[in-house]
Amino acid sequence: MVFAAPNDALARAEGVLDADPSPLHASVAHQVIGIWQRDWGDMRIALYHLRRARDLAARADSADREADVLAALGVALVHAGRTQQGLAALERGVERGSGHTRARVLFRRAYARWVLGQHREALEDVRRAIPVLRQMDDVIWTARALTLRATVHLALGAMDRADADFTAAEALWDTTGQEHDKADAVESRGLAAFRSGDIPAALRLLDEAEERYAKLGTPTFMLNIRRCEVLMAAGLAPEALAEADAAIGVLDGIGGQSTRKAELLLAAARAARLAGDAHTAIARADMAVRLFAGQRRSWWETHARLVLIEARVAAGRSSGRLVADTAAVAERLASFGAPAAPEASLLAGRMALALGWRADAERHLRDAARSRHSGPPLARMTGWAAQALRARAAGSGRGVVEACRRGLDVLDAHRMTLGASELRARASAQGAELAALAQQASLDSGSPRRLLVWSERWRATALSTPPTRPPADPALQSDLTAFREIAARAEEARSEARPVPALEREQRRLEREIRSRTLHLRGETPGDGYRFDPGRLLERLDEDGVRLVELAVLDGRVQVLLCGQGRVRRYEAGLLADAETEAEHVQAGLRRLAHPGAEGRLAVVEAAGRRLEELLLGPAAAHLGEGPVVIVPPARLHRVPWALLPSLRERVLSVSPSASSWLRARETEAPAGGRQVLVRGPGLATGGAEVPHLAGRYGGAVVLEHAEARVPRVLEELDGAALAHIAAHGTFRADSPLFSSLRMADGPIVVHDFERLDRSPYRIILSCCDTARFASVGADELLGLVTALLPLGTAGVVACTAPVNDAAVVPLMLALHKGLSEGLSLAEALRDARAALPSDALHQATGWAFSAFGAA
Description:
The chain is of the alpha/beta class. Helix content is 61%, strand content 9%. The protein has 37 helices and 16 strands. It is globular. The N and C termini lie far apart (66 Å). InterPro entries: CHAT_dom (IPR024983), TPR-like_helical_dom_sf (IPR011990), TPR_rpt (IPR019734).
């Protein structure tokens, strides 16, 4: 009953003990309390009750009762870190038990051995237990044994065997009322989905398991560990670190299992390393190594040693001793049959190469490269990275490029299983090394065109196809509506200086719900097989008389690829770090210039613009020609106000996340009908003063303002529009970019709302602060409002990269629409609008803060 209705079982057991039971019945009651405390409470209390149960079983003179209690006690001792005592108790239980009871004890010993990482021994025990359990028609214990065997198979990488056992166990669980075991089965299926590379299914199943556990009131730290694994694979390492640390705090607070604490420390170490926090990773991994060693868990200790070495390398440490240690870890992992062995061999090979140890590097890389043809996507990518490094060491540029291509093909296939744009963007980080190797090989070959191809290969890939839309998900719709209402109430409370903590907590809860549901979405298609064609790009550029400038970054330096006149030319510019610093200075200057009285800053900002041009364009600035220019910057330069650069200030200028994205936008056709939509949100200093003027310019336009500017109505009208102008307060969320928003009458409209459109407007003008701000994630990806619109059918956007003066925006917008009504593109109209503004610092800064994105 303790795994069917845990809290009821606990109460019943305490009731038995209150009724002066016989030694036999008292033994059962103490065992139930001990199991409850072992799995969900204090290990010291658990051990007290299980020892009492053992002593009472001996007094009852029941060998099977004593064997059963010894098995439960043995598992508890293992979880408490007392491995030798635990295994001894389990051995004694096997000796004392017979028939059916002995099979159950063998199952528990198999479980303990799985916890210890003794996978082959665990398989042997469960192999002996299952036939007896089946013969006794013991459905519950047979299902448990099958679930355990499947989990051990997963640890050894035997996916097909695990799947067969999970399927058989699930059929048995459906016939029982064991709710905790059923939740555990759902959790195990989530682990299986993750191991097979299906991250959305893994997240969905783990969330479902958590809901089931919550109904039973039974926390499970194994679920936290598994979710951390999935979050890390999804590129959400900071969230995994927060979850692991929070679970450690809860576990310490209740005096819970020492084994789970060690595993959580290992998860935290991995997450910290992936999040770029090497020192935290070292601290957590070192603690995990010591705990695992004390628990005599060699399999786990070896994995923790690998993470500790990886963290030390990330912190800048490298030596021959570290190479030897890594090679020893790789060898040990391989002896365990652990899927992490290639990762360790790759690290050893990489370090050996850096030290010039060619023979050692070749041996380690060859071992790692064996994983490239089989296993889950990330293991195959590890193999292809090793193969690329082998080719580079052998001086084969062609071999490097081929290995990188094959590895990134694996990543592409994996990424297209992800329905959420956030996960697609973050997944690209896993191909960073492959892309960098291919780019360097292209640079070494002296072919700018080849460097362009590889720069495009991994740039803005999340934008290549629209995210999966969940139009028929009523729960998501309900959560979005509730979020909007709570956010509006919180905003109102802030404006009236009323306390908002309760509203903010509910808003954060709803954000987690919405984000969780979107992360569960699976990609609908395997992709369109699109491959960037530089010849097609050059033809289109020449047709339009446009020059495209793509900035690639290799070894920290900006490489300028100037495309046009039928060729690609390369120029070397400055250091990326210097350009980022200068861009921050420019942003600070523009913020100051948004307020009257800061005219003295204008010369400083213009001087920074000249320095930015030297750092970002270098010699290429003199070869831009006279026509329009498209800038394709790396993600880390997304906040540069490009119109401030002297050579770009007077020309038709647009920005695009990638050359491929510009091509798609250029070839996107405007919708039939040409509907215009004008939206005016609340709280603007000017009241959105341009909107009434624009309504007069566009006769028949849909105008949504005051109470009509509500999110459902706004979305309905925006869907498929030819032109949309939105005057509203914009808020950028660096912590959660897909909750960046525009304020409407009934609350915020967020990126998640726009992603539900069948087709976003062909052209959108966002006369709001911070609407062109993005979060840089993954390898070279951007998340934000503009990047959400581009894959959904929008060919051109005008948006703002900095805070601006509301009053100065009005004349800029009116001049911009004047150009559009005369047949100009967004980039042409924006250039003319800047020129039409007054020449004072306030208006100049406002013009520089806006950029045209895309090609419409």
